[in-house]
Amino acid sequence: MTAVMPERAGFPAPHAVGRPDNPGLGAPRPGDARLGDPGPGDPRPAGTVRPARIRPVRAVNVLVGVDPVACRPATDPAARAAHLAIRHAVFVEEQGVFEDSDLDAHDTREDVVHVLATHLGRPAGTVRLYPTGRPGEWLGDRLAVLPEFRSAAIGGPLVRFAVETAGARDGLRMRAHVQLPNERFFHRLGWTTDGPVEPYVGHPHIPMSTPLAGPTTPWLAGPRRAA
User: Fold this and answer.
1) Least packed by Cβ within 10 Å: which of 48, 103, 119, 157?
2) 137-163 tens-digit pLDDT
3) CA–CA gap between residue 186 and residue 183 (Å, rounded)
4) 93, 95, 98, 104: CA torsion to nearest 10
5) Burial 27-48 (b: 16+ CB within 10 A, else e)
6) Where in the sequence is the domain holding 104, given as residue range(s)?
7) The CATH number of the domain where 150 resides is what?
8) Separation of alpha carbons 87 and 158, rounded Å
9) At residue 13, does pLDDT exceed 50?
10) Are 206 and 167 in contact (CB under 8 A)?
11) Residue 200: beta bridge partners?
């Protein structure tokens, strides 16, 4: 079946376009303005081509398919220095959890893992993890994010990286002493509360943990959520 398109006001049928008796969209009519002709009141003669106006385009940084947050072990001197500087800025200068320094004996252990998170290449956050001595058990601490990056979802990637790192090193469960305002954040990441509030480094914390292996592992159970 052949469709017939009737002519409508202002839109000639396709077979009529360009006919001598009906130029339609195919040919100019006498008196039609041409592209570039001066407008009314312009003293320049017809046919004068006006230069095109080019508007400046503002440069915009666009990242396609690139995660701005990267986490890695702070093994080189520069990364280790950045890791320690962030911890000092948060735990000593901002929160006052420690008086002079948050360094302790765990920082010199051979099996400790210092993690540095960067946002678009800039040092942004830290976490530290190490085995507790109990079979398969790891402890995570020194989770810190600089104030200027706290709206950039740095904490979630740091915690997940710590969990994956401990699991890859034959860990079975990770524990942490979590500051009270962060309990809900850890729940969203699949952690469970293990007991009542208790003092840790002189401040109230909540004991929490998460499995590191098996089908119930939070970071294997489904898509990751930004945090």
Assistant:
1) 48
2) 999 999 999 999 999 999 999 999 999
3) 5
4) -90
5) eeeeeeeeeeeeeeeeeeeeee
6) 69-219
7) 3.40.630.30
8) 14
9) no
10) no
11) 203
**Which among 135, 156, 133 is positioned nearest to 145, based on CA atoms?**
156
Instruction: Output phi, psi for 122, to 5 deg.
Output: -100, 135
Q: Kind and range of the H or E element at 108? A: none
Asked if residue 78 belongs to a domain, the reply is yes
- Are 206 and 183 contacting, i.e. CB atoms less than 8 angstroms apart? yes
96-110, 195-209, 212-226: range with lowest mean pLDDT: 212-226
Q: What is the token pair recorded at 96?
A: 């006052």
The pair of structure tokens assigned to 1 is 């079946």
Q: What's the CA angle centered on 130, arms 204 and 170, to 5 degrees?
A: 125
Residue-wise burial string across 134-164, b where 16 or more C-beta atoms lie within 10 A, e elsewhere: eebbbbbbbbbbbeebeebebbbbbbbbbbb
**DSSP secondary structure string, 152-181?**
S--HHHHHHHHHHHHHHTT--EEEEEEEGG
Enclosing H/E stretch for 145: strand 137-145
83 contacts 102 by C-beta, under 8 angstroms: no
Total domain count, the chain: 1
